[in-house]
Amino acid sequence: MTMLDIQPSATLRRQDVVAMNTNMILSNSGLMKKDLAKAMGLSPQSMASRLQSKADWTIDETCAAADFFGVPLMALLDENLTPAKAMEYIKNRRSDNGNDGQLVAGHGFEPWTSGL
Fold it and tell me: What are phi and psi of 21, to 5 degrees?
């Protein structure tokens, strides 16, 4: 058996992981799909296609979703993300932003500075 033969066929595509994690966060956060679609610049139909893994996510869309939720980009790519872990990211983000525990969609990534 070659290494190629050993590769598990059940391994999720990254697209599927992003869709799965996005659905999980939406269902646990109380945020609306239509608001996510708007933040990503997508129609509700295009958003539904992505959430069902019928259409591929671009890197820009994945970044926009992470931004919308206030989670690190890598959280959406984490095959082992749990609802508790996702909500912890969001909780930490809310307290870091001084939002008094409120989930506020659309907060951006921290601005990058060159340190100069």
Answer: -70, -35
CA distance 105 to 114: 27
Tokens of 59: 């890197």
Confidence (pTM): 0.72
DSSP type of residue 80: T
pLDDT tens profile 1-13: 444 444 444 678 9
Largest CA distance in the chain: 56
For the stretch 60-75, pLDDT in tens is 999 999 999 989 999 9
Say how far apart CA 92 and CA 42 lie, in whole Å: 28
Residue 70 burial (CB < 10 Å; 0-12/13-18/19+)?
Answer: buried
